[in-house]
Amino acid sequence: MSTKKGLSFPLIIIAIVLGATIFKQFDFKTFKFESPAMAVIYILTFIMTVYFLFKNNKEKQE
Known about the structure:
Elements: H1 9-25, E1 26-27, E2 32-33, H2 36-61
Antiparallel strand pairs: 1-2
Helix pairs in contact: 1-2
């Protein structure tokens, strides 16, 4: 029997919040961020969160 677990709930919440924040910070008229330094931090954190989310899910399936 295999014990499959779903995606990590806290990581999903973090990814959703960071994605929404990045979306709100971006100005589509000028194609720039309101604060570029914070945008870099948000994007890096978002990428790391998504990476760990799918890395943990892949390890649990094996």
